[in-house]
Specification:
Layout (H helix, E strand, L loop, with lengths): L4 E3 L7 E8 L3 E8 L9 E10 L2 E7 L11
Antiparallel strand pairs: 1-5, 2-3, 3-4, 4-5
C-alpha cells in the first residue's frame, strides 16, 4: 500500500465531499479535485489543514481514513 502526503498549492480548486473534522486548529475533509473530464479526471483525496500561528498549512493525502492517519 502506498501513502502520499504533499503540500497543497494556494488557490487550488476543489469540492468538499465530506467533513471529518472542523475545529479552531484543524480542518480535515474528503475532497474532489479535477474537472471529471477525459483531459482532467476527478480524484477523491483528503485535505488536512492545520493552523500554524496566523496562517493555515494545507496537506493532501491519499489516505482517506483518519484512523490510519490522524490529522495531527
Amino acid at each position: 500500500m502506498l501513502f502520499a502526503k504533499m503540500r497543497c498549492s494556494q488557490g487550488a480548486s476543489y469540492q468538499v465531499k465530506r467533513v471529518l473534522t472542523n475545529t479552531y486548529n484543524v480542518k480535515d475533509q474528503i475532497i474532489q479535485i479535477g474537472a471529471g473530464t477525459k483531459k482532467t479526471p476527478s480524484l477523491t483525496i483528503r485535505l488536512v489543514q492545520i493552523r500554524s500561528k496566523n496562517s493555515w498549512r494545507s496537506y493532501l493525502t491519499s489516505v482517506r481514513e483518519p484512523e490510519i492517519l490522524p490529522p495531527m
